[in-house]
Amino acid sequence: QEKKRLTICNIARQWEIQQNRIALVASLNQDKDNEPCQINGSATYVFPEESRSLDTILSSAVQGLSVLESHLVEVEGDTLCLYGAGALECLDRNWNVQTAGIIVTVSFIFIEFDEIVQVLTKLKTKFPNLVHLKFKETNLVMLQQFNALAQMHRIEQLTVDHQGNPVVNFSLWKYYVLFRLNRFNLQKINGVKVTETDIVMAERLFGILAYVASSELPHYRMLSLFGESKRKQFHYLLEGKGKKSGIGSEESSDNRRNGGEGTTRATLNYMTKDLHMEKLEEIKERKTFCQTYVENLVKEAADINMKNESLQKLWPQMFIELVRDAVIEIRNKNSYMKLCLQRITDQKQ
């Protein structure tokens, strides 16, 4: 128990240091021009030398702590507790079938949510009876992050601790969760039972959001999100029939029965920071390629146009010279016939 306590304390300190580093970087990015920033109510300046020294201190602190255990994996009854990002590696192990079947709840503590997103598909296969997810100190900061939980095959309970998850300060966060994860039929959120009134309110608050999100996507992007069975529903929605017949509510009830993802809700996705940066880099590369390609086409078109203009100017004189050379060449019929025969012979050889 003492070793467990020390390990958790160590993980908590590493997490705090990491968060301070992130806050420091964000602060420095905002104060690149050495503008005064408010710290504890007083104005001060952040100089490059100070930023380097602070970052060095934080790095040294993390290195010192890394000597101790940096993660913890623990099974308590039917709950799997994962402390620290390194604990996620346990999901790659070959779990005992009996142990994996017991797990009903997985608790993530001191782990970045973006790192958790990458292992959600593993949870589905490793723990078939998993129905409850808990998040504490995971940096859940925006509603969009809950979109990632749609990857799960089953969730009955969701617990998001106030500690380290600023998103719970939004008054409507529970309604958004109910709306986005409606196909799971969540029973409890933070220990409070979900009512029919909550579900109706969630649809009223965020139903238009899914419609707007789907309407902003190009048709080919929308079609790529769904299988063949969903494409007819999408075409039906595009024709405006969905709005007239109230397809939103019908779609919700159908998806609950079928356990499928709604055609419009599927457009509400979450992209991790790393993946977002990769996409931005890819877009940048495509933009550079397209710009270079178009510039080369323009240059080639300009060269062709210049050659064409030059040809138009020279053509009258060239035509006269061609006619003159042809007349001179065929003036002597016998010599011209010999020349033609000689050309044919040369071609055959």
In a nutshell, what does this entry contain?
The chain has 349 residues and is an alpha/beta fold. The protein has 13 helices and 9 strands. InterPro entries: LRR_dom_sf.
Instruction: Assign a percent range to the helix content.
Output: 55-70%
**Neighbour order of strands in the largest sheet:** 3-4-5-6-7-8-9
**Number of distinct helices:** 13
Number of strands: 9
Overall average pLDDT: 78
CATH architecture of the domain at 1-23 and 69-200: Alpha-Beta Horseshoe
Give me the strand/helix succession. HEEHEEHEHHEEHEEHHHHHHH
CA-atom Rg in angstroms:
34 Å
* CATH fold topology of the domain at 1-23 and 69-200: Leucine-rich repeat, LRR (right-handed beta-alpha superhelix)
Class of secondary structure makeup: alpha/beta
Beta-strand share of residues: 5-15%
Our measurement of the CA-to-CA distance between the termini, rounded to an integer number of angstroms, reads 97 Å
> How would you describe the shape?
elongated
> Main β-sheet: number of strands, strand sense, barrel status?
7 strands, mixed
CATH class label of the domain at 1-23 and 69-200: Alpha Beta
Query: Can you tell me the residue ranges where pLDDT is under 50 for at least 5 consecutive residues?
Result: 36-52, 61-67, 241-259
Protein name: Leucine-rich repeat-containing protein 49
Region (Disordered): 242-265
